[in-house]
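Bug #77: duplicate submission created two jobs. Keeping one. Sequence:
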Amino acid sequence: MQRTLAMIGLASLVGAALVAGPASALTAYSPTGHLNVRSGPGFQYPAVAQMEPNVPAAISGCIANYTWCGVAIGGLTGWASAEYLVTSAGGKLTNLQVSGAELGIPIVVPEGVAEVVATPPVGAMVAVPPSVGLVESIAPAPEVLSYVTAQPIQPVLVDGEVMIGATLPAAVPVYPVPASPYVYSYINGQRVLVEPAARRIVYVFR
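Kept job's structure:
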């Protein structure tokens, strides 16, 4: 299984433009945890930042099917999965992917985003329900962190964002960690520690 990953410099990430009409004043946030902001509109693109839980970010627009939206946080622009974003615009709390067209969020075209070729997804992540709220990460021992970071394993792609509390699909391989109750995997460009019985992510290597 081969996966070609385009290397993108930080300067190009910060400067990547989103082609759209007038800037939207709409904001949205992630209620369930630290949501990745990626360099392009897809889970195969590298994470360049995270949205803090319940902290609104400016939305510049979304791609045509409203699955990914451009966000601006801390002076950095990137892309977040609309499935994980909620907004109170329009007078009620709603998911951005569902309500994007109704709210009049402009359609944008990614510009300056290098293409990333990836293998097909092996399954879909089970996301943390929004009603659960923030799920806390564990604090792995230093030897666990160094072991997992050093292992040369092949990453796999899944549909869904890498977040604490999310559940891996059955087809994602996991690997043991010596002297640890957890296993690990490498998904969507990020290594994760996983609670083996539930296959639930308990720590994300940033």
